[in-house]
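idk why but the lab printer keeps eating my pages so im just putting this in chat instead. protein + manganese (II) ion:
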Amino acid sequence: MNIHEFQAKQVLGRFGTPVPKGQPASTPEEAAKAFDALGLPRAVVKAQIHAGGRGKAGGVKLVNSAAEARDFAAKLLGKPLVTHQTGPEGRVVRRVYVEQASEVARELYLALLVDRKAESIAVIASTEGGMDIEEVAAKTPEKIITEPIDPVIGLGGFQSRKIAFALGLRDKQVNQFGLLLASLYRAFNETDASLLEINPLVVTKDGSVICLDAKMSFDDNGLFRHPDIRELRDPNEEDPAEIEASKFDLSYVHLDGNIGCMVNGAGLAMATMDIVKYYGAEPANFLDVGGGANSQKVAAAFRILLADERVKAVLVNIFGGIMLCDVLAQGVVDAAREVKLSVPLVVRMEGTNVDKGKQILKDSGIKVIAASDMADAARRVVDAISQRA
Ligand code: GDP
Ligand code: MN
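predcted complex ->
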């Protein structure tokens, strides 16, 4: 789960991380009030969407008066902002953040993430802050340093100092940075975060080190331990199909292809996507209906798949272990009738009650292309879309 910048800064503030003071606003009037509440000659107004690249896209502006804050907020609110991370349709700005402006001397990059190879949280840092870090990694990888943190020992002072020196920090900044990094590490651990990115971390003209931007993502499996963080979810920023799927406890991820896949088990779902690609087509989604799905759940999954207009054919690939093939077949039939299925449907089923399942499909009168094995299923579904194209 991702959260907005202003929310991430609120969370970090609780851990003592130095972040500028600010207030979110959802109307131009509120933005003007937030400027006055800061009581400072200058503020920065920032569009709040779950995407970076706002600065370059015109979503961040320094303002010198409440009127200017109001005008800029009016320009942003209610309209989509297109950045290099949003796709061409952009994201509608529903809130801005009005924050105390900082006098920036240097922009640095700092992130914490789960490093699976090192089996630990790692700190990533670079002197090239405020830029697209992927670009830095591609062009000048030597400018990125990675420091894994031993989960048992925790963040060592020597590690903070090493990173601070690599970032060109000196004197009292080294200590400040040590405290800042320790607070980030604590925040990351205690909230079950999966990513914490500060881009840029800045050195201000008066020499302080603060977080100018903050992006935070959390491990969904840990959210039950953090009801306060779960409340920060913004459904406006999420894929409606994925929200619908989560209501039915389905693991669904929207992709860009045109073959809808319904599979049980994450491993089989991955293998199904691979084989669809192997035969030259692209999956429209990853969908694991789980082990003990009932026919309502299968029907819901089917509806979600078909709601995607790009889906030109559906491939059902089920291995009936705990899941019974007749239950699956009934769910598919119910949903196909309900949505008036109009695209080719290829079904490959194997396992418990497979004969009963096949009979249900046969008796339903729905046109089903039966496949004998996975390769056959993939071939048939790819054939089905090429014939229609
Ligand atoms: P992003 O473009 O979505 O990553 O948004 P950021 O929060 O990183 O802001 C983009 C850029 O705006 C930063 O890299 C800074 O250069 C600039 N910026 C943001 N806040 C301030 C501020 O308070 N003072 C100054 N001088 N620049 C700022
Ligand atoms: Mn940024």
